[in-house]
Amino acid sequence: MFPDLPEISLRPIGVVRNQVLEPRPDGWQEVTSRIVVRPELADALLGLEGYSHVLVLFWPHRVPADVIGSKHRLHPRDDPANPLQGVLATRSQIRFNPILVTAVRLLGVKGNVLRVRGLDAIDGTPVLDIKPYVPYFDAVPDAAVPGWVTAHDERRRTGE
């Protein structure tokens, strides 16, 4: 049914540097990070400073190998109040290929270093790719999410 799929290996293009040493579920909005890109790739950043936001693809390197892909179904955010979901219907780090993506504010580019705000990655996280955020392609105004997502957002907003 499936053709033989090739093995894929990735080499990080950079690393996250910030003051966050342990993973946490929330509180990333005001975290400022530096993404230090491999020096030989600095020229690839030309023109990126013209964007207000970028998409950062990264690898959650602290997820143990035996945990990666270990669950097909889970309660999002490890909260039993959330309905059981397939892992691909969540933003969990426990994925078959834990490639994570976050849209962040780009604060500046200098040489091979980007300064960003809102990246939910701890210090030392490998960065796989950076893409400019283009609202025409990346924003979906009529996107829908399940009720448990909006309920969680409301609980977080009200502090319940």
Structural account:
- It is a single chain.
- Helices cover 10% and strands 27% of the residues.
- The chain has helices spanning 135-138, 147-158; strands at residues 14-17, 32-37, 53-58, 73-74, 85-86, 100-110, 113-117, 126-132.
- The strands form two sheets. A six-stranded antiparallel barrel has the order 1-2-7-6-3-8. Strands 4-5 form a two-stranded antiparallel sheet.
- Strand 6 (100-110) and strand 7 form a beta hairpin.
Kindly estimate the percentage of residues that lie in beta strands according to DSSP.
Answer: 25-35%
Number of helices: 2
- Overall pLDDT: 92
Given the helix and strand composition, which structural class is it?
Answer: mainly beta
| Shape summary | globular
Beta strand count? 8
Order of helices and strands: EEEEEEEEHH
Percent in helix: 10-25%
Oligomer state of the chains in this structure: single chain
Q: TL;DR?
A:
Helix content is 10%, strand content 27%. It is mainly β.
Blueprint (SSEs and pairs):
Blueprint (H helix, E strand, L loop, with lengths): L13 E4 L14 E6 L15 E6 L14 E2 L10 E2 L13 E11 L2 E5 L8 E7 L2 H4 L8 H12 L2
Antiparallel strand pairs: 1-2, 1-8, 2-7, 3-6, 3-8, 4-5, 6-7
Supply database-style keywords.
160 residues; mainly beta; six-stranded antiparallel β-barrel; two-stranded antiparallel ribbon; 2 helices
